[in-house]
Design a protein that fits this description.
The chain is mainly α. The protein has 14 helices and no strands. The chain starts with a helix and ends with a helix.
Length: about 290
């Protein structure tokens, strides 16, 4: 009986801690889950892709654990409900699906990496490759990530902090969560402090933009998934197909600063025109 009582008290104490600090618990669990999954790749040279896929679902797992243990009425049901909001404006759908296409095309064009001739010859790939890829291959990992980042974390952050600060906090944590990928052969490259600082800025500016779009979509996690999937489908899939054959690394030095600059300008303009609110409405206002 003593052992059972101790175990029961331990469980009760853990639940009380989660109820008091759901966001901190979510962030710790998300990072812990994904970094543990990364250990075989980090120390034993295992393939990166399985880690990437499993790690992408750590925010989902952490969100479910915290929602179930927090004592919030219908916590998991509310989380899943936010993820399946689909009734929002067609303009927001277009923005979520094609806004990043324009942003990345501008990035490579302004950096001189994408000649207009190549774009004029291959623009149909936007419809023959990008859209099918967006709703198939590139939808998988963002579904796991954004259930946690958008459906859980952003929702709770905006209930405690100003929307702009919520986006900044989420961007910083999101960048830190990616750290193991810098120590595994991947598209993230090799870790260096300056490169990671730039990546964190990109993550923060990106989250400001995505938070604005998500709020315009009534807090829909589906909008977050589409944004994330679009980012991956464009940057990893579409852009390399549009670019002419180039020597390795030729575009990276130019396109990185241009992307950072465009994200910065976009984020600042959104912050100015929304007065830092990023189109946020609380649940009472949204229902009304």
């Amino acid at each position: 009986m003593t052992t059972m009582n101790v175990a029961a008290r331990s469980v009760s104490a853990s639940r009380n801690l989660i109820r008091r600090y759901p966001l901190i618990t979510f962030f710790i669990l998300t990072i812990a889950f994904s970094w543990v999954v990364a250990l075989p790749a980090l120390f034993f040279g295992a393939a990166f892709k399985p880690y990437q896929t499993l790690g992408a679902y750590s925010p989902l797992l952490a969100a479910l654990v915290v929602s179930a243990a927090s004592g919030e009425p219908d916590g998991i049901k509310a989380l899943l409900s936010r993820m399946t909001i689909w009734r929002f404006g067609i303009g927001t759908y277009v923005l979520a699906m094609f806004g990043l296409v324009i942003l990345y095309l501008l990035t490579v064009a302004l950096s001189g990496a994408l000649p207009m001739q190549s774009l004029s010859e291959k623009w149909t790939l936007i419809f023959t490759f990008y859209i099918p890829a967006l709703f198939t291959t590139y939808l998988m990992n963002p579904s796991g990530e954004e259930t946690g980042w958008t459906g859980f974390a952003l929702h709770h952050l905006q209930k405690q902090f100003r929307p702009w600060l919520s986006a900044v906090i989420l961007g910083v944590v999101w960048a830190i969560w990616h750290l193991p990928a810098y120590f595994i052969p991947s598209e993230m490259g090799t870790f260096n402090p300056i490169g990671f600082a730039i990546f964190m800025l990109i993550a923060v500016f990106t989250r400001i933009i995505w938070t604005w779009v998500t709020n315009k979509a009534k807090g829909s996690g589906l909008a977050g998934i589409l944004l994330h999937a679009s980012s991956n489908a464009v940057s990893v899939g579409l852009i390399p197909l549009l670019l002419p054959p180039l020597t390795s690394g030729q575009t990276d030095e130019r396109s990185g600063p241009v992307l950072l600059g465009l994200l910065f300008v976009s984020a600042v303009l959104i912050l100015i025109f929304t007065h830092g609110q990023l189109s946020y409405q609380n649940e009472v206002e949204a229902i009304a």
